[in-house]
């Protein structure tokens, strides 16, 4: 609620910066792009994570190898992920660029569809492992007696998934959705490294708009107001997800007891 021009001098501005942010088309466009990216990321990564977890062996050396491989991207710093994928799309030496060229496709980073597809692919590679590990751990805890009873009743794969596995995945899926939404909605480093918010403003997400306002334009008052609004958007959406997905009667003891 202040403005500053440096020198540790602050000027009271009241709610002026909040009014500027909430009446700015650039702000709403950035919010829409961030929400769209989060929605698409969840739409891809949640079903993919469940699919892979269902097909992982429950034990053995192969399981260990798979867990290690899907954990490596999650342990890779975001700045490294950004530069890794940026190197992969270089026209002369990039593995991804040359692979697409080999099947008759040209990766055009000046086209918004290509940039969005690349960022979604990168984010999926980076974080789908989280969904896989959460789902796999929960699936592994289901007693074999459930599957034996289903086999005696002649239940098919879809019935087993719908009535045995999916109900027990609800809690971990809720956690995965919450974590992945918050991560994807606040995504900054990788898009900045790869696209710098372009082409145009097609990948200028809300996090990028905030940094642009505060550090590039040095408009600290407006950036501060935007940060507060940004925080409340994340808080409200996350709380809404939590209320819709996790039943109120869910308790820690019921989770530990395997009743969820």
Q: Please, could you describe this protein's structure?
A:
The chain is mainly alpha-helical and 260 residues long. The chain has a single domain (17-247), classed as MetI-like (MetI-like fold, Orthogonal Bundle), CATH 1.10.3720. 72% of the residues lie in helices and 2% in strands. The protein is built from 12 helices and 2 strands; from the N terminus they run E-E-H-H-H-H-H-H-H-H-H-H-H-H. The chain has helices at 16-22, 25-54, 61-75, 78-88, 95-102, 112-140, 144-152, 157-185, 189-195, 206-216, 220-245, 252-256, and strands spanning 2-4, 10-12. A two-stranded antiparallel sheet has the order 1-2. A hairpin with a 5-residue loop joins strand 1 and strand 2 (10-12). Helix 2 crosses helix 6 (112-140). The longest helix is centred in the N-terminal third of the chain and has 30 residues, at 25-54. The chain is globular and about 75 Å long.
Task: Give a short summary of the structure.
The protein is built from twelve helices and two strands. It has 260 residues and is mostly helical. Helix 3 (61-75) crosses helix 6 (112-140) and helix 6 (112-140) packs across helix 8.
List the helices and strands and how they pair.
Layout: E1 2-4, E2 10-12, H1 16-22, H2 25-54, H3 61-75, H4 78-88, H5 95-102, H6 112-140, H7 144-152, H8 157-185, H9 189-195, H10 206-216, H11 220-245, H12 252-256
Antiparallel strand pairs: 1-2
Helix pairs in contact: 1-11, 2-6, 2-8, 2-10, 3-6, 4-9, 6-8, 8-11, 10-11
């Amino acid at each position: 609620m202040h403005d500053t021009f440096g020198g540790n001098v602050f000027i009271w501005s009241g709610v002026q910066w909040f009014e500027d942010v909430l009446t700015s088309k650039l702000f709403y466009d950035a919010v829409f792009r961030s929400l769209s990216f989060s929605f698409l990321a969840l739409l891809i990564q949640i079903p993919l994570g469940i699919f892979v977890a269902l097909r992982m062996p429950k034990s053995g050396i192969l399981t260990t190898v798979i867990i290690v491989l899907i954990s490596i991207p999650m342990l890779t710093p975001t700045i490294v992920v950004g530069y890794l994928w940026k190197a992969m799309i270089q026209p002369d030496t990039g593995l991804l660029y040359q692979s697409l060229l080999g099947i008759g496709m040209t990766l055009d980073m000046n086209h918004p569809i290509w940039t969005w597809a690349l960022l979604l692919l990168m984010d999926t590679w980076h974080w789908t492992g989280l969904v896989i590990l959460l789902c796999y751990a929960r699936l592994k805890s289901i007693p074999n007696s459930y599957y034996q009873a289903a086999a005696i009743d002649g239940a098919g794969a879809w019935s087993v998934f719908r009535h045995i596995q999916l109900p027990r995945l609800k809690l971990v899926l809720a956690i995965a959705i919450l974590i992945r939404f918050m991560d994807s909605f606040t995504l900054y480093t990788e898009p900045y490294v790869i696209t710098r918010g372009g082409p145009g403003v097609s990948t200028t997400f809300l996090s990028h708009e905030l940094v642009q306002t505060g550090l590039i334009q040095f408009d600290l008052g407006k950036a501060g107001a935007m940060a507060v609004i940004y925080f409340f958007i994340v808080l409200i959406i996350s709380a809404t997800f939590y209320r819709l997905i996790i039943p109120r009667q869910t308790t820690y003891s019921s989770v530990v007891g395997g009743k969820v």
